[in-house]
Amino acid sequence: MVNINCPLSKIIQHVTINLILGLAAQYASWRVMQFVVGIFGLTALGIIWTFLPETTHPGARGVDKLHQKAEPGKVRWTQYIVNPLSPLWLLRAPNIVAVVSEQ
Do 70 and 92 fall into the same domain? Predict the structure, then answer.
């Protein structure tokens, strides 16, 4: 049995993948390749959606808390004001400031 962590197997994997993708690029158009990537993505999404269980704890979501507080038969609606500029505070991070100040 071949060890997956063996450096030789990784080299063989990279060479094989590059060979296959090179042949695909030579004989198929970029549209076909993007179509294949899209099919693989939708397939992965379907598998994940089907087989990956819900990971939230019961009662942890905000909607569940609203339903617990509401009277039976009534759903309370809460209005939120969303500030689209609120993520701008992330620009104060030192690494972002260093990149922006260099220019």
Answer: yes
Cα–Cα distance for residue pair 14/6, rounded to 1 Å:
13
Specify whether 77 is located in the same domain as 42: no
Query: 60-102, pLDDT tens digit by residue?
Result: 666 666 666 666 666 566 677 888 888 888 777 777 767 766 5
Taking the CA atoms of 54, 59, 65 and 70 in sequence, report the sign of the dihedral they define. positive
Phi-psi region of 73 (alpha: psi -120 to 50; beta: other; left: phi over 0): left
C-alpha–C-alpha distance, residues 17 and 61, integer Å: 43
